[in-house]
Amino acid sequence: MVRAGSVSAFVEAAQAAELPPGRMKRIDVGGRRILLANVAGRFYAVDDTCTHEEASLSKGFLKGELVKCPLHGSRFNVCTGKALEEPAEEDLRTYPVRLEGGHILIGVPEGGTP
Ligand code: FES
Known about the structure:
The relative contact order is 0.28. This protein has strands at 2-3, 7-15, 24-29, 32-39, 42-47, 61-63, 66-68, 75-77, 93-95, 97-100, 103-109. The radius of gyration is 13 Å and the shape is globular. A five-stranded mixed sheet has the order 1-9-5-4-3, with no helix packed on it. A three-stranded antiparallel sheet has the order 2-11-10, with no helix packed on it. Strands 6-7-8 form a three-stranded antiparallel sheet, with no helix packed on it. It is mostly beta strands. The protein binds FE2/S2 (inorganic) cluster. Residues 50, 52-53, 55, 69, 71-72, 74, 87-88 line the site of FE2/S2 (inorganic) cluster (FES).
């Protein structure tokens, strides 16, 4: 698992009501493209860009905890960021998520880039 560096702030990313269980969406937060997923009522955030090439995982398929890349089919666990299937070998960066009053907040590292 690749964890984000020091968290500078939690930024509002979406409303919980707009992302029901089993759904995911790409959001742009703090200069990053982040994939936000609802897995059985819990929200998880990982980098949206596949670690193999430049595909957007939000255009892929979410099944349970697993997202499948739309380009070459690598699968990642959105809860841990773990790469589970080649050709991708590198894990996705994960971000802390908070739910406050129906708002989904994501912790982004200082500076906006690694
Ligand atoms: S770009 Fe995702 S597996 Fe190749």
